[in-house]
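All the exercises in this workshop are built on plain-text protein records. An example says more than a description, so a record of this kind follows:
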Amino acid sequence: MAHGDQCQEQACISVYTENNQIIIVARKGNTTATQKISQAPKKPVVKSTPKPKPVPLFFPPKVVVVPKPILSKPRVKRTYKPRTTKAVTSVNLSDRLIKMVPTAGVAYQPEFEPLSNVPVYFWCDLPTLFQSRVDIIGEVVDVALRPSFMWSFGDGAIYATTDNGGPFPNGNVRHSYARPGTYLITLLTTWNGTYTHNAEARAVSGTVKKISVATVTVVAAPTTFKG
């Protein structure tokens, strides 16, 4: 991740793990926001009232009714408050994304009452490569994670591999139980990998660990007499 003033000119990207989640953080420079000032409104214009003209009198005198002058109301323009200038503020371009890695259950074969001393095939449907492309503050970040598996078969046997296993006959994760019984299967999946930004690959800080469990009941193989 870049430090100091480097983030003012180019994006700083950081990818790490927190609470078994992938956290992607991006930060890039500053930007400013300004607002223009509008002109102050003009004063309202009031029209003057015209004075009435005198009416001449004639002989013999007559009663003349002088009409009252009609006064027009002054027209007042609507006024607006002048806009004020907002202070120029500095805004950081930053964002934070959380990516979840896939989880899966444990499967095994034979599904119903496997026999003792006969191999049981185990697997999970997790991919061996998890890829995700994210767009954060206009920057493209590619994340690539690979899992490793730790199988605990419940009878004390442990098997570590990068293979996600498979069913009969091609599965590479298999185990035989010496005695009948019910066993707790625990699969610990650990994700780690890299992220790429601007054609530069860096390691993801930390790992993501997920646990999946299942139970298997093993029965005794039938006895066959020959003679």
In short: The first strand starts at residue 12 and ends at 18. The first helix runs from residue 6 to 9. The CA atoms of residues 206 and 225 lie 57 Å apart.
